[in-house]
Write a structure and sequence with these properties.
Blueprint lengths: L11 H19 L7 H10 L7 H10 L3 H11 L6 H25 L7 E9 L8 H14 L16 E3 L8 E11 L7 H11 L4 E9 L6 H4 E8 L3 H15 L5 E2 L10 E2 H4 E7 L2 E7 L8 H9 L10 E7 L15 H11 L5 E3 L7 E3 L2
Parallel strand pairs: 3-10
Antiparallel strand pairs: 1-3, 1-4, 2-3, 5-9, 5-10, 6-7, 8-9, 11-12
């Protein structure tokens, strides 16, 4: 008996969304030649059944390019769809220990690596792109960085992932004018920010557009830690206007508005009067704000549906216009996060034993600290 027959069926809506994402990813590749490192392009060709090098030569190429961890993750993700599963399995066996060693080396010098660069992207999600959810956006931006040859740093997890983090949740069907995503590059790019944004925007699907490139210290706090309020705007269809106005009036006349999210959600009902602020009509649109912490994960579609007693599908055109952030205290405390030569020297003294510590940077001569 085939065990796969007992697996739950994938909902049709999920299949449609998956197909839509795959179509968008393929269209991004068709925009122009890939600028991904050549070693990884050769690896992808091998996975697709178009090998240009024998396995040993490919492994050596990946090692020399210092891409063992990236290669291991690509192989792991492609092991079931490769043209030659057996050959890919052998590559996985060879690359796995090399990836572990690479991760160990990175872990040992992680706190001393001053070359990493944190970039906070601000972008708009509108038009045809509102159908994408957070997972889709993450995949699309990863694809854009990969195809434009912009190397993202990896985290230190057992299975390292690129350091690309969504800002605040934004579900499918909801737009945003000033959304954020944090990208950590292995090195600060040499091109100016306008050129970088133009390259990425050319790759991204229509409706996604980066409009601000903000370099930050690597220790800056994430958007989720700083967000205070999200501001929203929705223009109701004519057939919903009278009903929406009556419900808004009712909401504003009470001190509490309990929202029971159903049995699937544990805990006490939420008071939406505590979460939703500044609910008002402005130029024919319903504008309001929602508190973020600790309510990041609340869907604005469901919050609005709980107030207006309408189906979430009625809120076509709901858009987040802005996010209020508190000041990032970390930016005023750089001395607590930046590695200090003084501390490195003190460590050398404490180690004792007459041994020397040699720090080597690819761009400079070795720095020798002698206790």
């Amino acid at each position: 008996m085939d065990a796969r027959t007992h697996l739950p069926a994938i909902p049709a809506e999920a299949l449609v969304r998956r197909a839509r994402l795959q179509t968008a990813l393929q269209a991004m590749e068709a925009v122009g030649p890939s600028l991904e490192p050549p070693a990884l392009q050769v690896l992808r060709a091998t996975i697709a059944g178009r090998p240009t090098l024998i396995s040993d030569a490919l492994i050596e190429l990946l090692i020399n390019a210092e891409l063992a961890e990236e290669a291991a993750e690509i192989l792991r993700a492609s092991r079931h769809v490769a043209a030659d599963v057996e050959a890919i399995g052998m590559l996985i066996s060879c690359m796995a220990p090399l990836a572990v060693k690479s991760r160990q080396r990175r872990s040992a010098s992680w706190h001393l690596d001053a070359r990493r660069a944190l970039i906070r992207l601000q972008f708009a999600k509108e038009g045809a792109a509102i159908c994408f959810d957070d997972g889709d956006l993450h995949a699309l931006f990863l694809q854009a960085f990969r195809l434009e040859g912009l190397p993202l740093a990896l985290d230190l997890a057992k299975r390292p992932r690129p350091l690309l983090a969504n800002g605040l949740p934004l579900p499918s069907g909801v737009g945003g004018l000033n959304e954020a995503m944090d990208a950590v590059l292995t090195r600060e790019p040499q091109e100016d920010s306008d050129a970088m944004m133009a390259r990425l925007n050319q790759r991204l699907p229509k409706g996604l557009h980066i409009h601000h490139w903000n370099p930050l210290p690597i220790y800056a706090s994430g958007i989720g830690e700083l967000a205070l309020l999200s501001h929203w705007r929705w223009e109701p269809a004519a057939q919903h206007r009278n009903h929406a106005e009556a419900r808004v009036s009712a909401f504003l006349t009470v001190e509490t508005w309990r929202w029971d999210r159903g049995e699937a959600k544990a805990g006490e009902p939420l008071d939406l009067r505590h979460i939703v602020r500044d609910l008002r009509w402005e130029d024919g649109a319903l504008c309001f704000s929602t508190r973020m912490r600790p309510f990041h994960a609340l869907s604005p579609l469901k919050v609005l549906a709980a107030i207006l007693d309408l189906e979430p599908a009625c809120f076509l055109g709901l858009v987040r216009t802005a996010v209020d952030l508190k000041p990032d205290a970390r930016l005023d405390q750089g001395e607590r996060f930046e590695p200090k030569l003084k501390n490195m020297y003190e460590d050398a003294v404490l180690l004792g034993g007459g041994s020397n510590i040699v720090l080597v940077d690819d761009d400079d001569e070795p720095l020798l600290l002698c206790p």
